[in-house]
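Annex B. Sample input.
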Amino acid sequence: MSDTATHLSPDAVKPVRFRGGGFKPVPLGLLSPLVFALVIGLWEIGSQTGIIGQLVLPAPTEAFEAFRQLVTSGLLWKHLGASLQRLAIGWTSGTLLGITVGMMIALFSLARASLQPLVSAIFPIPKIALLPLFIIWFGIDEGSKNATILFGTFFPTVIATYSGVDNVDRTLIRMGQSFGLSWWSIVRKIILPGALPAILSGFRISASIAIILLVAAEMIGAEFGVGAYVLLAGSLMATDQLIAGVALLSVMGLIVAWLIGKAERYFLRWRS
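Annex B, continued. Sample output.
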């Protein structure tokens, strides 16, 4: 080794930048609110200058005024309460049933051979097209609405569950078997944690589908609900109220996504 290399001063040694971040997303703070504010600001400017027609798309201030009237009249809580109740019942039931059937398909050959083709055949059917059939079966009241949401969230949850289990590293399962772990211990300690990222991703998809089906179900025979409010506003050509209802649905979707994100950070903290 040369004298130059052996007699380097500490100041001449430069630290190597850490490059093992693992593609972990970097939080950017206020960027998301700024993007929303920019879009709404440009929308308001376009409406005020006449670039955007008021009949085609009302200004955000008009939609906010319609939302304020909805709050002061007390109708917001009636519409929102009815929608949240249907969403909670339908999505929770469909998710629990979907996880159960998905685990059965993933873990038992008989269930995979009999149920997986059935799931693959029914999943592409638009669930909104089955709403009249659900009304015949369960009536026009809450039963048909809850069944529509349940049916729509069930299939993506099933597919996400058994796909997540199928993608668990088989080496870990064989290692557990070699150490003499019981079948239930392998499922609880290896398979479920390994499949949880896919299952939670399925939750995001099924929650979005549930909100879409909620609106469709409430447009048929519902007195209260965000979907019923949007339908009434569209029938009256009250576009400011229509935009307020759509914005309310968007906020519901953001809150659900935020809650699922919190669940992911809690249950998947072992990945960091």
